[in-house]
Design goal:
The chain is α+β, with helices and mostly antiparallel strands. It contains 9 helices and 4 strands; from the N terminus they run βαβαββααααααα. It has 2 domains: 111 residues, Glutaredoxin (3-Layer(aba) Sandwich); 105 residues, Up-down Bundle (Glutathione S-transferase Yfyf (Class Pi), Chain A, domain 2), CATH 1.20.1050. It has a 4-stranded mixed sheet, with helices on one face. It is globular and about 55 Å long. The model has no long low-confidence stretch (mean pLDDT 95).
């Protein structure tokens, strides 16, 4: 059994995708980031950076005590190694998978998050910031499209954790979606992942856990999400 500390954000969806694809038994423990659950001592004990998701594996491979893992990329890698799935075993395939996993963690996720913050959530609309991050995210979409013109998936011809990491960051902020007309390979890849039964099961958790997703933020939610020092 895996305890999955979750809220339906792009980083949360990454792990749900993996858990559903791998058929692992897990229990969802909601972490309401708008209510400040991420700052509670019990959660900080397993996720010291006060970010979700995090997991606690009660049956780690070494047979020892329950093992906690934080950071979505680290969780994907941990679960891939635990199950022996969705990460190529050969040197070149594994290297490619890790390249694109780290590319998402260092680029697509943070840049998309900044785009969403300044274009959607910021109380003051700063044109320079909005343009800066929109342009950078579009550049990253172009990088994805170029890669996917050569391969079915990011690490090659098989679906894997690099794809699970990037997919949730494409359609996050309403109309701020990729220019699929300009990036047809990205559209093909996105649609193929969206059609997977595990993807549909993973995203069904969103409505169960947070039926208010997408609604305007309250002052309290803004304070917890953007006001911490």
């Amino acid at each position: 059994m895996i305890d999955f500390h979750y809220w339906p954000t792009p980083n949360g969806h990454k792990v749900t995708l993996m858990l559903e694809e791998a058929g692992l038994e897990y229990r969802v423990l909601p972490v309401n980031i708008g209510a400040g659950d991420q700052f509670k001592p019990d959660f900080l004990a397993i996720s010291p950076n006060n970010k979700m998701p995090a997991i606690v594996d009660h049956a780690p491979a070494d047979g020892g005590a329950p093992l906690s893992v934080f950071e979505s990329g680290a969780i994907l890698l941990y679960l891939a190694e635990k199950t022996g799935r969705f990460l190529p075993a050969d040197l070149r395939g594994r290297t490619a998978a890790l390249e694109w996993l780290f590319w998402q963690m260092g680029g697509l996720g943070p840049m998309s998050g900044q785009m969403g913050h300044f274009a959607v959530y910021a109380p003051e609309k700063i044109p320079y910031a909005i343009d800066r991050y929109r342009n950078e995210v579009r550049r990253l979409h172009g990088v994805l499209d170029t890669r996917l013109a050569q391969h079915a998936y990011l690490a090659g011809e098989e679906y894997g954790i690099a794809d699970m990491a990037s997919y949730p960051w494409l359609e996050v902020y309403g109309d701020l979606k990729p220019d699929y007309a300009a990036f047809p390979h990205l559209r093909r890849w996105h649609d193929a992942i969206a059609a997977r039964p595990a993807t549909q099961r993973a995203y069904a958790l969103k409505e169960q856990v947070n039926p208010n997703a997408g609604k305007p933020l309250s002052d309290e939610e803004r304070r917890h999400l953007f006001g911490q020092k």
